[in-house]
Design brief:
An 8-stranded parallel barrel has the order 1-2-3-4-5-6-7-8, surrounded by 10 helices. Helices cover 48% and strands 13% of the residues. The protein is built from 13 helices and 8 strands. The chain is of the alpha/beta class and 331 residues long. It binds glyceraldehyde-3-phosphate, 1,3-dihydroxyacetonephosphate and zinc ion (ZN). Glyceraldehyde-3-phosphate binds next to helix 3 and strand 3.
């Protein structure tokens, strides 16, 4: 099957009451680890590339590595999504490449640092929705700002999503999925102690607009065993905590459908490479340590697919194409 519009994957998750992980990818081993987990658990999957990923990997390599995953996994619905698009131009580029979904992070200005006003966010998001829907492409927007900074992306301050504003935002923009700020943040250093997320924001929005797919960024759990593996083999990561799986499961029960995960994949790969090289001082074939990294991504993502409830749902529906979505949006 060709790449699937993300809207269909999320709408099906709404019907089935489960969450779908959106995993950040930058290289072949990550894609292969994630796809092995999706195949073995029979899960639909969202592969997402940030601007940083596109810069590092090169847009053609991202595109064709993901298309290779599609060809290799004909029974798995896969969406290719732009993570944290900063302006219409970036979204246009992704759509031109064949991405089936884009995020316009209108909560920040084009510099991806300075927070916008509600009105600016509406305007920025709406222009992307109008453009993307002409091509059948899904749009995710964001209201509120997360903490944490990744590669210079993020304001570093937190503004939780206001549920009434969120309802107005969804209505004014016509977007397909909304990312919320409910107390999570990007990166490995999220919390010093077990966090309390403001999960009632999810219920408040779902009560007013039932079935709107909601998105949770900054959802890595930062498992202690991954931090431990890195530090055991020479790493020096500070004590930190991520989002506990129980909180993610509770958020899914309340209406979160897309769960963004980048950091846990990074930690898994780093731990595996450090361990392999630490234990095999004579190693120099990259296939050995990158192979270990790929295995670690597979293990980590497989656990998430089972916990998010994605497992078993790949064959539930007949995949739509962008052409189908064009007709739906433009009627
Ligand atoms: O939300 C941000 C993601 O973790 C992507 O991070 O810009 O370093 O690729 P990146
Ligand atoms: P983590 O840093 O928690 O993995 O979050 C990733 C993310 O939100 C990507 O958009
Ligand atoms: Zn994010």
């Amino acid at each position: 099957m060709p790449l699937v519009p993300m809207k269909q994957i999320l709408d099906e998750a709404v019907k089935g009451d489960y969450g779908v992980g959106a995993y950040n990818v930058n290289n072949m081993e990550q894609i292969q680890g994630i796809m092995r987990a999706a195949k073995e658990t029979n899960s639909p999957v969202i592969l997402q590339a940030s601007r940083g990923a596109i810069k590092y990997t090169n847009m053609y390599y991202i595109k064709y590595m993901v298309l290779a995953a599609v060809e290799d996994n004909p029974d798995i619905p896969i969406a290719l999504h732009l993570d944290h698009g900063n302006c219409l131009e970036t979204c246009k580029q992704a759509i031109g490449l064949g991405f089936t979904s884009v995020m316009i992070d209108g909560s920040l200005k084009e510099d991806a640092k300075t927070p916008t006003t509600f009105e600016e966010n509406v305007e920025k998001t709406k222009e992307v929705v109008e453009y993307a829907h002409k091509f059948g492409v899904t749009v995710e927007g964001e209201l509120g700002t997360l903490g944490g900074i990744e590669d210079g992306v993020g304001s570093g301050t937190v503004k939780l999503t206001d549920p009434d504003e969120a309802v107005r935002f969804i209505e004014l923009t016509g977007l397909d999925a909304l990312a919320l700020a409910i107390g999570t943040s990007h990166g490995a250093y999220k919390f010093k102690a077990k966090p309390t997320l403001v999960l009632d924001i999810i219920n408040d929005i779902e009560e007013k607009i039932p079935g709107i797919p909601l998105v949770m960024h900054g959802s890595s759990s930062v498992p202690q065993n991954l931090i431990g593996a890195i530090n055991k083999y020479g790493g020096k990561l500070e004590k930190t905590m991520g989002v506990p799986m129980e909180s993610i499961k509770e958020a899914i029960k309340r209406g979160i459908r897309k769960i963004n995960v980048d950091t846990d994949g990074r930690l898994a790969m780093t731990g595996a490479v450090r361990k392999y090289l630490g234990e095999n001082l004579d190693a120099f074939d990259p296939r050995t340590y990158f192979g270990a990294a790929r295995e670690a991504v597979y293990q980590t993502v497989k656990g998430k697919m089972e916990n998010f409830g994605t497992a078993g749902h790949a064959g539930d529906y007949k995949p739509k194409t962008l052409e189908d979505m064009k007709k739906i949006y433009n009627k």
